Each structure stands twice: as structure tokens, then as C-alpha cells.
Amino acid sequence: MERKLALLASPAAAAQEAAKRLRAITHFVDINQADAIIALGGDGFMLQTLHGMLENHRILPIFGMNLGTVGFLMNEWRLEGLEQRLERAKIYRVNPLRMMAATVTGEQIALPAINEVSLLRETRQTAWLEVSVNERVVIPELVCDGALVATPAGSTAYNLSAQGPILPLGCGLVALTPISPFRPRRWRGALLPERTRVKLRVLDPVKRPVSAVADQREVRDVASVEVAIDQAMPLTLLFDPEHTLDDRIAAEQFIS
To answer: Which of 37, 57, 146, 182 has CA atoms 20 to 30 A from the CA of 233?
Structure first.
């Protein structure tokens, strides 16, 4: 049976031009009739597309082609041979995080994250956080610029910049990484089973306000944030077998 493909492209000129050329040689359908998505753009556009599927509760396999800057989540852009590439593509399933943030005014906000959930200080004052794992307080007072919880797919993004570990896909772990920790000085984070529930409570949210960010979406002035893997809505990414996502994650460990 012929695969029904939808084409999505970022607003960038290069992606729009590539979409025009691809439409001239390939038949695409509306996304509501599709059984797979071709995404043209960079990593930011890929995350935007994945979030759109999560919000609409309609998850489709997605094959991205890089017309952005880094393209870590994307395949190489090529005009020809799309059907053959899809037939050979390696499948990766990625479980997103689910962030439940409570603001100082009592508002409850739930957001998904494919890469990471991060807490960040809003002012020059350091953040004071209480860290709990599965409802047990493990660090009563973490003094820092912030902290984050990252998935394996997101471990090479902000997590790596914060000196967090690179996690192989399928390892069944998430990374809990502090951002510029001042106290405890020697704590550099933890590797936790993916079914772990992490809670970060802001100890002084008025004097030391903190925001929470789920990938690119921010919630200001949070009082606490709970983070856990959402097992109910796995995402499916497709990659060329000669340049797969796990290969890229492994290669990042040897880049100086």
C-alpha cells in the first residue's frame, strides 16, 4: 500500500524553496490524511512539529531533512530518492517528558518536553531549590542558577552544555543536572531510571524567582515543578540507516 505523506516546512527561505522542489516531484496529502510526515527545517522546527503532534494527540512517524543550522534530529537534505530512504529508514521511539508546574499564584500548567525541562533563575539572585526523587527529599537546598531533567534524545543539547552526561537511546535513564551549582559544590547531577518522578521546589520564590522551561515554552514564577517520562505518547523518528540518531549521540562523546 502506498505511503501517504504530508510535507511541513519551516518559514526559512531555504526550507520553503526545498519544499517547492519536493512538491514538484512527490505527491503529498493533507496532514489529517497522512500516515507519515516529512519535515524540512532545523532542530527547532522538528521540536515544534513534535509538540504539535503531542498537543493534537495524533502521533505520526516523522522523517526530517536538515535545512537549518545543526540538524541533530534531522537527516541530510536530498531531493531525490525519498521513497527509498523511507523504506530503509531506522525507527526510533522517543518518550517525552511531562512537566507539571505550579506557579506562585496557584496555577497548574502541564507541558510536554522532548529534550529537557529546565528551571532557571529569573534575576541576579541564585535559585534555592529542594530536590525530591520519588517523593523523597534528596537535596534539601540546592543553590544554583538552575537545574534540568533531560531525556536521552535531549542529553546532547542544553544538558551537555551544563556538563551533564550523554545518554544512549534506549538506556532507560534520564539525567538530572544542576546548572552552575554553588552548594553542594561537588554535586554534579544524577542518572535516574526513566520511571522516576523528580520534583523541584523553589524555596524562596518571591526573593529568588524561578522560571520553568519545557523545551522552548516558559512558565514564569514557579513554586514547584514535577517531571516524569510520559509513557503514553511515544514519538517515532525515522533516520537514514547510515547516519542514525544513536550514532550521532555516541559520536558526541568524542568531540573535543
So the answer is: 146
Structure confidence by residue, pLDDT tens digits, 197-216: 999 999 999 999 999 999 98
C-alpha cell at 96: 517525552
Is 214 exposed, middle or buried (CB count within 10 Å of its CB: 0-12, 13-18, 19+)?
buried
The domains of the chain, with CATH numbers, are 5-95+233-252 (3.40.50.10330), 97-229 (2.60.200.30)
Q: Give me the catalytic one of 43, 230, 246, 247.
A: 43
The 10s digit of each residue's pLDDT in 174-188 is: 999 999 999 998 899
Cα 209 versus chain centre, distance: 24
Dist CA 146 CA 141 (whole Å): 12
pLDDT in tens, 111-139: 999 999 999 999 999 999 999 999 999 99
Tell me whether residue 247 is one of the annotated catalytic residues: no
Contact 10, 42 (CB under 8 A): yes
